[in-house]
Write a structure and sequence with these properties.
single chain; mainly beta; OB fold (Dihydrolipoamide Acetyltransferase, E2P); 6-stranded antiparallel sheet
Length: 151
């Protein structure tokens, strides 16, 4: 005869496992920008690193579109509805020692990639590539290079 308490305990254990797997934070281990997926380092397994299955990563895809693939070591949040990693999506998380914020100011937005920096403020845009910059203000422009400046 089936024991309803054992059945309820088994169902509760399965539910706890699914809830525990719904949201987790982890560093990116592998990236495939062409297919739009990442794999995460979930810790050490019996035979070395334990990697997640392939998880699609979120992108901006409305009127404004951006191709910003994650990088190895980047912290992300894995959101898996119902705890099922096959339905998961990876969302950018936060700064880390490996990936620090490019600004600590509240009045500017800063984008960086390699030696390129773009700073957006309320009335100006500045693009810097290495030692060369181009600035647009509400009242003019400025171009600066190692051997040249134009105001």
């Amino acid at each position: 005869m089936p024991n309803p308490f054992l059945d309820m305990h088994a169902r509760l254990s399965a539910l706890e496992k699914r809830v525990a797997g719904m949201i987790r934070h982890a560093p990116v281990e592998e990236v495939n920008p062409a297919e739009g997926w990442v794999r995460f380092d979930l810790g050490e397994g019996d035979n070395g690193p334990l990697l997640s299955p392939k998880v699609l990563y979120a992108q901006i895809a409305g009127g404004l579109k951006a191709h910003t693939p994650p990088t190895k070591g980047q912290q992300m949040t894995i959101f898996a509805p119902g705890g099922d990693m096959r339905q998961a999506v990876a969302l950018p998380m936060t700064w880390s020692d490996q990936n620090k914020s490019p600004s600590d100011k509240g009045d500017e937005n800063v984008l960086t990639f390699g030696s390129v920096t773009v700073v957006l403020k309320g009335e100006s845009v500045k693009v810097t590539v290495g030692g060369t910059s181009f600035e647009i203000y509400s009242d003019g422009i400025r171009a600066t290079a190692a051997d040249y400046q134009f105001d």
